[in-house]
């Protein structure tokens, strides 16, 4: 079964949350983001082809469509710019998946390589993931944006964007991006900060 953009994003996010112990692991995560980006590009390009299939000559296709299609053809996430987002929106497409993948790629690229053994998810991680899954079920939604997690993480300004996805094996789970002060951050780091603040409070 061919993998979807969601499959690649889920894998990259899993690796990002676990932390990178080698450059190779970081590169694998970047490759997954690039593959997800390719799938999103293909969806737009296929839609454009269907929309203009009746045009006999390429030169007769609207200039803005040709420019966007040509740009997307060999584009990587780090090459995506505001003008591409504007062009997508002008043609009736959602630019958000492109923007999120470009930002995700930059975050992975700048992540620190920490050469330590990868640990199993801690109890707090499992608690937060369960809470998000329960919230999606309660709201009867497959997507939630800006979910406030501050009360569960030491009153830090933490929010989450979560999307319920089904992988290639038919297993469903929430795919979540965590933000501290609006910046994409690994949940494990947020938990460490919250625990350290709590420890200092107890000492004081």
Keywords for this entry:
204 residues; elongated; 13% strand; alpha+beta; single chain; 7 helices; four-stranded antiparallel sheet
Task: Provide structural commentary.
The protein contains seven helices and four strands. It has 204 residues and is of the alpha+beta class. The chain has two domains: 5-110, no CATH class; 123-203, no CATH class. It has a four-stranded antiparallel sheet with strand order 1-2-3-4. The longest helix is centred in the N-terminal third of the chain and has 29 residues, at 23-51.
Write the layout of secondary structure elements.
Elements: H1 5-18, H2 23-51, H3 63-73, H4 82-90, H5 96-110, H6 123-139, E1 143-148, E2 158-166, E3 172-180, E4 183-184, H7 187-203
Antiparallel strand pairs: 1-2, 2-3, 3-4
Helix pairs in contact: 1-2, 2-5
Query: What distance lies between the first and last C-alpha atoms, to the nearest angstrom?
Result: 56 Å
Q: What is the N-to-C order of secondary-structure elements (H for helix, E for strand)?
A: HHHHHHEEEEH
Rg (CA only): 20 Å
Q: How many β-strand runs? A: 4
Largest sheet composition: 4 strands, antiparallel
Describe the structure concisely for a colleague.
This protein has 204 residues and is of the alpha+beta class. It has helices at 5-18, 23-51, 63-73, 82-90, 96-110, 123-139, 187-203, and strands spanning 143-148, 158-166, 172-180, 183-184.
